[in-house]
Amino acid sequence: MNCNLFRLFFIFLFLSFNNYSFAQDRKIQTLNQHFYPISEKDSTNLAYYSVLKLINENERVEKFYTKEMRLVKAIKIGFNEEGTFRQKVIEKYDELGKISSLTTINQDNNKYYAVYYKNEVLVGDVIFDGVGTFESKRADTNQPVFLDRNEFEPVPFTDKQLWQENLLKNLRYPVQARRIGQSGTVFLALLVDKDSNLVRIEIANPMDVAKSLGDEAIRVASLYKGKFIAATDLEGNPVEAWLRIPVRFKLGS
Q1: What integer pLDDT is reported at residue 21 of this predicted model?
Q2: In the chain, what is the greatest distance between 2 CA atoms, to the nearest angstrom?
Q3: Is the per-residue pLDDT at 236 higher than 80?
Q4: What is the end-to-end Cα distance of the chain in Å, rounded?
Q5: Is 152 part of any domain?
Q6: Pair 110, 103: CB distance under 8 Å
Q7: Helix and strand counts by DSSP (H, E) for the chain
Q8: What is the pTM (predicted TM-score) of this model?
Q9: Are residues 131 and 9 in the same domain?
Q10: Per-residue pLDDT for 16 more than 70?
Q11: Are 76 and 61 in contact (CB under 8 A)?
Q12: Is 69 inside any structural domain?
C-alpha cells in the first residue's frame, strides 16, 4: 500500500476512535509545510494532514495534524453567537498540545482579536483595526502600544514599497502561460533567518498555479535587494520564520 494512503487510512481509524462519524461531509487533505494542498503521492513534501468537516451550509471546522497525528491548528468558520457577522476562529497548539493562540476574525471587516499563551499562561493580546494598526498589550503591563504589525506573530516583513517597485519593474508574464490563458496567484514562501538574511525561496501553493508562473515569481523575488527583518518570538527574541507574499498574474493586465 502507498505510504501516504496508509497514513490516510490510519487517520480514518484514529478519528473514528475519537467519536468521529464519517460521511460525505468530511474531507482529508495532504498538505506541505506551508499548509497548502499537495498530491497524496508526494511523500517528500508531506508535512500535515487536514480534516475538514462541513457542519451545515454556513459552518465548517478544519483541523490540522502532523504526520504523527499531533493537533497543531483548528479553524472554525461560521457566524458569531449573535448571528450578526461571519467569523473565523483560529486555534493554534504547541508541541505539548497546549493552546498557544486564539484569534477571532470578523470576516466582514477583517478586524480581529488575538490572545497568546505560553505554557497555558497568558502572554498578551492584540486588537487589529482591519486597516493597518495593531493595538498590542503584554500581560505584564496595562499600557497598550500601537504598531504597524502584530508583535506576537512570528512573521518577518520587508520594505513593502521597495518590494512593489521590484515587482513593477521586473515581473514579466510568461509568454506561454499568457498564450494558453494561465493565471492565478503565486504565494511565495521566503525563509528569513534570525539574522534577517533571506536563505530560501519556495512556492507555497504549487498545485494552484502553473509552473512557469511559479518560476517567474521566484526569479523576481531573487532580484529583490531590500532588507528583511527577522521575526520575533513571544519574548521578543529574533527567530527564523517563513514570510509569505502573494504575486498575482492576471490576464489583461
Answers
A1: 45
A2: 58
A3: yes
A4: 47
A5: no
A6: no
A7: 4, 17
A8: 0.85
A9: yes
A10: no
A11: yes
A12: yes
